[in-house]
Every structure is written in C-alpha cells, then in structure tokens.
Design brief:
The chain has twelve helices and two strands. The chain is mostly helical. The longest helix is centred in the C-terminal third of the chain and has 43 residues.
Length: about 375
C-alpha cells in the first residue's frame, strides 16, 4: 500500500499541508492585541469613553443625593438623625423628579418650583450639618449623646419658658415630655426660617449685580416675591407658636386639647383659620387624628432604634459572634422600618400642609 505523499509544487519541492500554513501565517502576523486593548487606530482607542455607571443598589436614584447620604454616614450622625435625613432626601428626590417632568412639559417657566427645590435642599444641608460649615449642633457622635446638649433650645426666651414650666408643678411627667416636643419643634421651625432667610439674602445680592433683559428680571422678581411670601408665612407661624408655648407654659394643658403632636397642632390651628366649610374641617380633623397616630408609631420605632443601637454597641464589645449577628439583624430591621415610616410621615405632612395652605391663600 502506497504511503501518503506530500504535495509536490511546480519545482518539485514538498508542499506543506494546510495546518502548517496557518501556523506560519500566525507567526508572521505577530501576537493578536488583547481584547478591549486595541492599537492606536482601533475604535476603542479613538471613541470617547463612556462615563462610569453608578454602582447598582445605591440608596438614591439621584447621584447628588446619594453622595449626600454617603457624606452623612461618614459624619457618623446618630441612627435617628440618619433615618430622618433618609426620609428628607427621599422627599427631595420625589419632588425633583416631579419637577423634571413639569419642566419637560414647559410648566415651570418662571423657575419658582426649581427655586423652591433649591431652598428645600438648603434646609436639609443646614439641618444635618452637610453644608460644609462647622456647626456642631447638627453633628452628634454615633451614640446617644448627653440629653442636655442634644436638647438645647438655642434661645434664651425658650429656655426661660421651659424652666418655668418644669418648676411650676402644673405638668405631669407625660405632659412635660409633650411640652418638650413642642419646644423642640419650635426650635426646628426657627432654624428652617433662618436658612431660608439666608438663601433669600444671597439671591437678592446676586439679583442686584446681574443685568438681564426686562422680561427675565420680572421673572426673577416674581420668584423673589414668592420667597418673601413663604418667609412671611413661616414667620407668622413662629410668632403664633411662641405665643402658644408662652400660654401653655403659664397655664398648663387644658382638657380641651385635641392633639398632642406639635406638627399636628400647627396644622389644626392653620386649618381652623382657613377657608374650609364645617364638613371639610371635620374631615381634616379626622385625617389629622390618623396622621397623629402615624407620627406616634414613627416615634415608637425611633426610640426602639436608639435602644437597639446601644445594645448592639454593648454586644459588639462583650458578646459572642452569634449574639452580635442576631442584634445586627434586629437593628437592620428597625432601621429600615424607621426609614419607611419617616418617609410616610413626611409625605403625609407635605400633602396636608399643601391642602391647608392652598385653602388659606384662597381666603386671603
């Protein structure tokens, strides 16, 4: 049997088989460039790089809010303050997405809603010490701080009223807790007013130094006017709140009080002065009762979160791994529930405030 023969070329030389030819071709061409690292004339080298995508699973869809959240965690805010901030940022995100939709439809030509969003974010930054200022009031250690420092009222008039109420003998311990919440609520209202006032002052300084067409200037003036109106409303609320605190501090709580939570008391006082019919006012009253129950539930979870945090810190120092793991699971569950309830409370508050405010302005 004839043995297999190599092919013979035109000069009688043996002709290599096909696999050998392919191997020689690969050697001559040199090594292939690695995937994704083409030469200088490759498409990969000459096309602009796409911006890096955000990591999936971020806390917020908006990058700037996600960055604020990460900054707050680095500042080691207390668990309750972090849960409050989370709810505020969720509300801000919700409102900003709603505004983007309005803007796409051409429904915010004067920029008023955008300006309101800016003011809202300024309040959040100042409230939690995220505005870059050295404000130790907003930053607390990641543990329960001294109540005397944490609960400072920052106003000598309020401190005097509070001292008088404590020593008057007119309040039970439960009523003193309730009154203290009212004082703290008043302090937060004053803080927010001061932030808005500062924001307005900066805007007006810019306005004075900008030369723009008449129609644009008129739009800016309209926005500034709306800010002034908002400031007036807030200042009126602060004066009314102080008058109430002074009256209650001197006289005690009467049996006629319908609500206990400061935010609900504020809303009810505003509703009574708004342009509601008797039937509408009764409906508001019932809704406020449900809202107050929601706030009380949120307050309960905030207290449980504080207790769980303290217990977790203790267990991490002295407990075994299994004990630590169980406490971490409980803390994570309470943290998520507190965030969820905080968002629901703020969303409900925004809805109620908007409806009552619209009714009051219609009357004015």
């Amino acid at each position: 049997m004839a043995s297999p023969r190599l092919g013979v070329g035109s000069r009688g030389l043996p002709q290599p088989q096909l696999p050998v030819l392919l191997l020689l071709l690969l050697v001559l061409l040199g090594p292939w460039p690695a995937a994704g690292h083409g030469g200088k004339y490759s498409r990969e080298k000459n096309e602009p790089e796409l911006p890096p995508k955000r990591e999936p699973g971020g806390e917020f869809r908006m990058e700037k809010l996600d960055q604020l959240w990460e900054k707050a965690q680095r500042l080691q805010l207390s668990p309750v303050k972090l849960s409050e901030l989370h709810a505020d940022l969720k509300m801000q995100e919700r409102d900003e997405f709603a505004w983007k939709k309005l803007k796409a439809e051409g429904l915010d030509e004067d920029g008023e809603k955008q300006a309101k969003l800016t003011r809202s974010l300024s309040v959040i930054l100042a409230k939690y010490g995220l505005d870059g200022r050295k404000d130790t009031r907003a930053v607390s250690s990641n543990s329960l701080s001294d109540p005397a420092e944490e609960d400072s009222l920052e106003d000598p008039r309020l401190e005097k009223l509070w001292h008088k109420a404590k020593t008057s003998g007119k309040f039970s311990s439960e009523e003193l807790d309730k009154l203290r919440r009212e004082f703290q609520h008043h302090k937060e209202k004053v803080r927010e007013y001061n932030v808005l006032l500062e924001t307005l002052s900066r805007t007006e300084e810019i306005q004075e130094n900008v030369i723009s067409p008449l129609d644009v200037s008129r739009v800016k003036e309209d926005v500034l006017h709306s800010k002034h109106a908002e400031l007036k409303d807030r200042l009126r609320g602060i004066h009314q709140g102080y008058d109430r605190l002074r009256r209650v501090s001197h006289q005690g709580y009467g049996t006629e009080a319908e609500f206990e939570e400061p935010r609900v008391i504020d809303l009810w006082d505003l509703a009574k002065s708004a342009n509601f019919t008797e039937k509408e006012l009764e409906s508001i009253r019932e809704e406020l009762k449900h809202f107050e129950a929601k706030i009380e539930k949120h307050n309960h979870y905030q207290k449980q979160l504080e207790i769980s945090h303290q217990k977790l810190k203790h267990v991490e120092s002295f407990g075994d791994r299994e004990h630590v793991s169980r406490n971490k699971e409980k803390y994570a569950m309470l943290e998520e529930k507190t965030k969820e309830l905080g968002y629901k409370v703020k969303k409900h508050l925004q809805d109620l405030s908007g409806r009552i405010s619209r009714a009051r302005h219609q009357e004015l």
